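so i finally got all the pieces together for this one. its two components total, 430 residues if u count the protein bits. some of the lines might not be protein, just check the labels. i wanna see the whole assembly predicted at once instead of chain by chain like last time, that was a mess tbh
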Amino acid sequence: MSTAPSSPNTRVRRLAERAHYDAATVHAILDEAYVAHVGAIVDGLPVVLPYACARVGDELVLHGSTRAGILSAIASGTPVCATVTHLDGLVLARSAFHSSMNYRSVVLQGAARVVDDQQEKIRLLDALVDHLLPGRRAELRASTQGELDATQVVAIRIDAVSAKVRSGGPKDAPEDVRPDLWGGVIPLVCGFGEPQPDASTAGSVAAPALRGARR
Amino acid sequence: MSTAPSSPNTRVRRLAERAHYDAATVHAILDEAYVAHVGAIVDGLPVVLPYACARVGDELVLHGSTRAGILSAIASGTPVCATVTHLDGLVLARSAFHSSMNYRSVVLQGAARVVDDQQEKIRLLDALVDHLLPGRRAELRASTQGELDATQVVAIRIDAVSAKVRSGGPKDAPEDVRPDLWGGVIPLVCGFGEPQPDASTAGSVAAPALRGARR
């Protein structure tokens, strides 16, 4: 991945000053995401569905049931678009026009690669579990062949990609600013709530440590 | 919108017990969303971009610059898919296979209608601002003709739509449950942070009241 737009399709056309193409920015945004919104063309129509995701190296990995909506329609080479968005705040300007939101997003276009190799499939599924909760995979039994067969794993190379970031306060026209009208940012914050053990969990078992607590 | 799948395209194919088609469920999920991930076919490829959204009656309203990526490619009748997802929790099961997430999502397919009528355009843009912060629109000046001309508003009828909801704890196979292994849900909670006034806001001006504070 270069620091320049790698594809005409993923060039940020609007507000190019908000565009970022460097790997560190793209990876940081992807790594914070549990879900990507994945678009594909199904029967001639666009379909967008949310999928659990994890970045593994220079690929974004998705998984789903082999019977699922669009993953089952994805064969190697099918063009897809996977988009991740973190909403960071509501930007309250002094005009409707300049009202905005702070966000960080990544748009990734590419061909989905179906992962058939069993060892690679296991490795990528393990990464998805550990992305949910780092270290969790080691606590669980191995997947059965039936489970592996029922699961489809696809990977999209992080190549034709762009990131877009807006941060900071409103950008009002000077003539719109009135000291008596509040302007600024209302942050949107997301984090972990109190873990809720199910009835099968013994009371003596400690809840998972939530490392790297979310914003 | 009926309580049955209204289109073969939006029928939930996988885990149909998680599917909901009633208007109340669909509207509640849409009304909690600031952003929809909107997919369209551009130059033969799927493109998914995040857009601010607001439900107005039985339509989902989006807006953007007339120079923007996919809205500029949307003419009346263009098929689009707008998807909203709220992630509610990480579901930690005793196997990788049953690990999951709690979520509420809506998938809406339809034809984007470009809103050209000036009065309707103003009304829908007002709704978008008030969706960001209820009551905010009344505090702002009217939009100029130039601002209106630079903004494209589209509406998608909430018709071919489905919602999907997962809630509750892990659904482990009985033989996987071990009392010494924690299983349950780690809630993901999102809410408003402390409002951050910009430098132009007088210290005496109260921050906006955040009615209907988010989860």
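The domain at 8-171 of chain A is CATH 2.30.110.10 (Pnp Oxidase; Chain A).
Residues 1-8 of chain A have pLDDT under 50 and may be disordered.
anyway lmk what u think
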